[in-house]
Amino acid sequence: MPDTTEHFLLFLALVAGIILLAWLWHSLMRTCEAANGADWGGRWLNRLDGLNRIFCRRIHHLISEPLNLPAAGGALVASNHVSGLDPLLLIAASPRPLRFLIAREEYDRWWLRWLLRRIGCIPVERTRNPRSAFEAARKALKHGEVVALFPHGRIHLDHHEPLPLKRGIALLSSLTGAPIHPVRIEGIRAQGMTVAAVFVPSRACLLSFAPLHCAGLEDEHCLEELWDRLALSGEERRHDNPHRRRRNGKPPNDGETVQ
């Protein structure tokens, strides 16, 4: 008889545990759905969007108004790049899905590739001709999607030597008429890191600027304006703008390469 009672109690505990886990899972899904801020075209992707927004606000104390993107039509989001956390922050602040240009070596990580493909990331061949990525981004903009990229091309911090921006973003804007929405990321504690930055709590802040329209502008002029918005604020910093130096016929600073 005692054995039977014991087994019955264990069975009740197991059932109670399953019910509790199911309730917690259901609550988590409802919370993620409530936090979802962009329609990614699938229920599970929308839940992941909500989970990411909760994560960025609770763990990284993200302070940001929603990115000032048009309700429809192609647009470019350009941001400074300080850590591996940056894409998550931009997604958490965006009212629309973002299609990121991402290095092929990052895109091909087996444990991430399925997700990166589902959310429409565009792989860039950095060691070979990146034309296929450029064409994919151009088509996405023509189809009314939002393409996000880091025009420095790699992680670049404020204390690093001034670095010119990659010309591709100006070309994309000029060819498609898509406005560039500059966003500056600040407050990341693990600057310069990739994976670690995702887990080290920060006081993240996104600063959004008025959109740039590059149609009709010289590429160098467009990049000059974008560089100013993404750089650390301050009049002295404006003199470091490598695109302004080129337009004024001045030699590059030490460490600056001509692209």
UniProtKB/TrEMBL annotation:
Q: Which residues cross the membrane?
A: 7-25
**What residue stretches are annotated with the Phospholipid/glycerol acyltransferase domain?**
75-188
Task: Write the record's keywords in alphabetical order, separated by commas.
Answer: Acyltransferase, Membrane, Transferase, Transmembrane, Transmembrane helix
Which pathway does this polypeptide act in? Lipid metabolism
Q: Where is this region: Disordered?
A: 236-259
A Gene Ontology molecular function term for this protein is:
1-acylglycerol-3-phosphate O-acyltransferase activity
Gene Ontology process terms (BP): phosphatidic acid biosynthetic process
Bias-annotated ranges (Basic residues) = 240-249
SUPFAM superfamilies reported for this sequence: Glycerol-3-phosphate (1)-acyltransferase (SSF69593)
Asked if Membrane is a keyword of the record, the answer is yes
Q: What is this protein called?
A: Glycerol acyltransferase
